[in-house]
């Protein structure tokens, strides 16, 4: 199963395609020690899966 949720500390600026621009930049800011509020990133794969499933969360993804 593909991973859909990432903590900021798991990402980097090189993961822009997977995390989106904002997600990758927040991850990079966290990794270099800038103050970033706690949070997480939904991957672009999560967005694509949601859209492919008629904008519904698949029962195997909840």
UniProtKB/TrEMBL annotation:
EC class of the enzyme, as a word: transferase
Entry's Gene Ontology molecular function annotations: ATP binding; kinase activity; pyruvate, phosphate dikinase activity
Keywords: Kinase, Pyruvate, Transferase
Domain of life assignment: Bacteria
Domain (Pyruvate phosphate dikinase AMP/ATP-binding) ranges: 17-54
EC number(s) recorded for this UniProt protein: 2.7.9.1
The keyword Transferase appears for this protein: yes
Entry-linked InterPro entries: ATP_grasp_subdomain_1, PPDK_AMP/ATP-bd, Pyruvate_phosphate_dikinase
Pfam (any one): PPDK_N
Protein name, entry field: Pyruvate phosphate dikinase
Organism field: Listeria fleischmannii FSL S10-1203
Organism placement in taxonomy: Bacteria, Bacillati, Bacillota, Bacilli, Bacillales
């Amino acid at each position: 199963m593909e991973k859909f949720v990432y903590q900021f500390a798991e990402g980097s600026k090189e993961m822009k395609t997977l995390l989106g621009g904002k997600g990758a930049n927040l991850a990079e800011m966290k990794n270099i020690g800038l103050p970033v509020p706690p949070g997480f990133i939904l991957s672009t794969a999560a967005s694509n899966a949601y859209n492919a499933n008629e904008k519904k969360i698949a029962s195997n993804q909840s």
